[in-house]
Design goal:
The chain has twelve helices and eight strands. By secondary structure, the protein is an alpha+beta fold. It has an eight-stranded antiparallel sheet with strand order 4-3-2-1-5-6-7-8. Helix 5 packs across helix 6 and helix 7 crosses helix 12. The termini are far apart. About 25% of the residues are buried.
């Protein structure tokens, strides 16, 4: 049962929110947060909009390096021969994974860890077996934008600051919705934009409308984004709510005698174990107790590389585990889906374009909010000081001794 005092407060907020002390307190929280994190979140969200289509932009920029002219039969080379070609080209680097693009005009791409160069991607013509080129991510402008978005160019510290900022953005958006509510009689007026008004009113209307339509999606993107800064905390919370594990680690194998196995046989075993879906990513063991893994994409998957995995023992060549994403428990699916949820890779181009628009909203809100604060608080204060200084100057002239 709701106490009478609470009922009165709810009724007052519903009809005349500006009379409520709570609403005034929320307004100041909104103002302080906006001035404190507005610029940071504007940068983070704008860079997020720029990398929604990062893989496609990089592929187009590479041109003939990543795009092929397929032969008439479209017969591809073996995975082993492609791997050997990459290893001959970069013998000092570790081959981490291979993107086996199914599109007929796209080359296979091998991710390499090359010290001190960092990540290097080698492109292989999957029909003819020749190396078409390389892509170096160190110093690359798209990677610079990505690092700015994720880590503020400051490593782990920047990632933590970004995560805290994202959680504060949730509060900022929620308080903005409270401040937005004008009362039951006036709510329709909040959806009106005064085209013929002076610029200050237009600025106010733009801030109000942008905040209302973007707030819920901003909160969603911010909550999922903070996961990357605090994954263990999120996973522990989801596990606590669900009373079951929220993470499914990759399996580990026993360390046996090193017996070279053909990658083609490993690949064939994996595809036989999971015959459905489109092959996207093949990962090579980086540790003695790590398996091979093959990732496949089904129609319902959200991640660009698919959500379904087959693990193969690097020593015996046998299947260790098969993970169909749809068969996993909801806590594990939720934590695995944080990446596509945050970057908008589900729902096709509609969701990705919507995410781009949402990423522009914080900058719009920050600029319009800053102008409102300047016009309402700073500018009047400066004018009062100017009038006071002028009055003091006039009094000093008036009472100055005559010569």
């Amino acid at each position: 049962m709701i106490p009478p005092a609470s009922k009165n407060s709810i009724a007052l907020f519903w009809h005349r929110p500006r009379k409520l002390l709570f609403r005034k307190a929320v307004f100041y929280v909104h103002l302080i947060l906006g001035l404190s994190i507005g610029l940071l979140m504007s940068i983070t969200c704008l860079t997020g909009s720029l990398i929604v289509y990062k893989p496609e932009i990089e592929s187009v920029a590479l041109g003939a390096v990543s795009h092929l002219i397929p032969p008439a039969d479209r017969a591809t080379i073996s995975l082993q021969s492609a791997y050997d070609a990459v290893q001959r080209t970069r013998p000092a680097c570790k081959i981490v994974q291979a993107y086996l693009h199914a599109e007929p005009d796209l080359a296979w791409t091998f991710d390499l860890n090359c010290k001190p160069q960092g990540r290097v991607v080698v492109y292989v013509d999957k029909y003819r077996g020749n190396i078409t080129g390389e892509d170096h991510f160190q110093g690359k402008w798209t990677q610079w934008i990505y690092d700015l978005h994720v880590r503020l160019l400051s490593g782990t510290t920047g990632e933590t600051v970004n995560g805290i900022g994202a959680l504060l953005l949730v509060i900022l958006a929620a308080t903005g919705l409270v401040v937005w509510w004008p009362g039951a009689r006036l709510w329709r007026s909040c959806f009106h934009f005064e085209w013929r008004a002076r610029w200050r009113r237009k600025n106010y209307d733009l801030h109000r409308l942008t905040g209302f339509f973007a707030s819920l999606l901003l909160m969603f993107v911010a909550v999922t984004g903070a996961y990357f800064a605090f994954p263990k905390t999120y996973e522990a919370f989801v596990a606590w709510v669900a009373h079951e594990p929220s993470v499914l680690p990759a399996p580990r194998t026993g360390v046996g005698a090193a017996r070279p196995r053909s990658l083609d046989s490993v690949y064939a075993t994996a595809t036989q174990a999971m015959p459905v879906g489109e092959t996207t990513l093949f990962t090579f063991p980086q540790q003695k107790n790590a398996p091979y893994s093959l990732r496949r994409m089904l129609r319902e998957d959200w991640r660009r590389t698919g959500d379904n995995l087959v693990y193969i023992d690097q020593y015996t060549g046998q299947v260790i585990r098969i993970n169909y994403h749809r068969e996993l428990s909801w806590p594990i699916r939720l934590t695995r889906d944080m990446y596509p949820l945050h970057f908008g890779t589900f729902g096709g181009d509609f969701t990705r374009i919507l995410w781009i628009i949402v990423g522009i909203a914080p900058a719009t809100l920050y600029v319009t909010g800053l102008l409102m604060w300047w016009n309402r608080s700073i500018l009047p204060s400066l004018r009062r000081r100017k009038r006071k200084a002028k009055a003091q100057e006039e009094r000093a002239i008036q009472f100055a001794p005559q010569r």
